[in-house]
Design goal:
Radius of gyration: 22 Å
Number of strands: 4
Strand content: 5-15%
Structural class: mainly alpha
CATH class of one domain: Mainly Alpha
Shape: globular
Oligomer: single chain
Distance between the termini: 67 Å
Helix content: 55-70%
Order of helices and strands: HEHEEEHHHHHHHHH
């Protein structure tokens, strides 16, 4: 009995040491890959943004709302950019990320705020202070609430439709179920996954209703012309319309919130005359 207990404790210690070594090795590998990636994109055309994101979708320039958000911002501000779909995940393991004159930044919002400061851009100059905060609140609602319900449909309930939105590498297809389980676990940790599908759907529906009511009969959430937060709102709504086939969210916009659909078409026409050239079809 005593020997058995000692062996168990020894095994636990060995497992703990091996885990720590594996964790350390993975950290070193990640740092090396990140350094290699940033070195690769250190020398880019002067004053041109390299937008790194997931490859083009079948019916939409990006199946990532955040990538589409950033690309829309670059088009609205007229900042010269080039799209790269070969290195979608940056130093923080996030997509999109940006390279500009040897500087690399991750996270769509951090990138926009950096470019606003660096290049003195302000897409909100026509807004009142109240309008600025209202549109900012809408962006936060989408990015920190609606996004989880949307991710649940795409990667869990609607995973069987995933081939319809983008051409996936073979290796990704082999691990599609694993990705779905990983997203399910993330949703559990975040909290959205602890609700039933109907409850998640109702939460997302409330967000769409809020957007529809606030937009009303206006052309854009910024009024007669788009504002900075329209980039994010368009990124999400376009992904619902064009990259979530047969989802209840798509049906809601089609059947209940026609002003949101018209808004998407308006943004698309204004900033993406080359939409059909960008999509992978």
């Amino acid at each position: 009995m005593g020997i058995s207990v000692e062996l168990s404790i020894t095994n636990l210690i060995i497992c703990g040491i091996l885990y720590k070594l594996a964790e350390k090795a993975y950290g070193l590998y990640t740092n090396w890959k990140n350094h290699e990636k940033t070195e690769k994109w250190k020398n880019t055309p002067k004053d041109k943004v390299i937008l790194h994101g997931v490859p083009r979708g079948k019916d939409i320039p990006s199946i990532s709302p955040y990538c589409l958000k950033l690309e829309t911002y670059l088009r609205m501000t007229g900042i010269p950019y080039e799209f790269d779909g070969t290195d979608p995940f940056g130093p923080k393991g996030k997509s999109p990320w940006m390279s500009l004159n040897g500087t690399h930044i991750s996270d769509s919002q951090f990138i926009i705020e950096y470019l606003n400061r660096k290049l003195k851009k302000d897409l909100n100059s026509h807004l009142t202070p109240e309008q600025r905060e209202i549109t900012r609140s809408l962006r936060i609602m989408l990015e920190n609430h609606f996004s989880w319900a949307f991710a649940s449909w795409r990667w869990v309930e609607g995973i069987s439709y995933i081939d319809q939105i983008m051409e996936w590498p073979l290796v990704f297809k082999l691990f599609m179920k694993l990705q779905s389980r990983r997203m399910g676990k993330s949703l559990q940790v975040q909290g959205m996954g602890r609700h039933s599908f109907l409850e998640r759907n109702n939460l997302a529906a409330s967000d769409l209703r809020t957007l529809s009511v606030i937009l009303g009969k206006r052309n854009y959430f910024g009024g007669d012309q788009p504002c900075e937060e329209d980039c994010s709102i368009f990124g999400f709504l376009a992904n619902v319309l064009y990259a979530s086939p047969n989802s209840p969210l798509e049906k809601m916009i089609e059947n209940q919130y026609s002003n949101l659909k018209q808004y998407c078409l308006r943004m698309q026409k204004l900033h993406y005359e080359d939409w059909n050239d960008l999509i992978s079809k």
